Amino acid sequence: PPKLTDICTICYTSGTTGNPKGVMLSHENVIAGVCAVLLQLGEHRPKSDDVMISFLPLAHMLERCCENAMYMMGGAVGFYSGEIPRLSDDMKALRPTVMPAVPRLLNRIYDKVMAELNGSFIKKMLFNMAMSAKEGEIKRCRYLV
């Protein structure tokens, strides 16, 4: 079996501050990342009947940690088609219960929804009512699907 200090994977950075670099991660690093994800999720950590959609780049450590957490908890991981414009179709087919996301993506989704709502008072009113109901459920630790 591998030692905790043995290299488990090499993750290449995006190169935002220069050329991409390979970061060598030990088994201990990877286990710590997965444990951090599970600890952060607390009682909401994935279960064996959960399904995660994988669409972030596999070089993204959040994606890798979430995938490993799903495998560790007995959940399933489905990979998107590779085309972001088709992500909603992929989600309809997969019906994921877990979707790791980064702020940049969430901001894009928010901006798109807000642009759609700005054209219609009725849509905006219905959306705000739905959001208020959902926020109330979340505060009471109940979730609507």
Automatic annotation (TrEMBL):
InterPro entries: AMP-binding_CS (IPR020845), AMP-dep_synth/lig_dom (IPR000873), ANL_N_sf (IPR042099). It is an enzyme of class 6 (ligase). One of its GO terms (molecular function) is long-chain fatty acid-CoA ligase activity. It holds the Pfam family AMP-binding. One of its GO terms (cellular component) is membrane. Residues 2-124 form the AMP-dependent synthetase/ligase domain. Keywords: Fatty acid metabolism, Ligase, Lipid metabolism. This is long-chain-fatty-acid--CoA ligase. It comes from Timema tahoe.
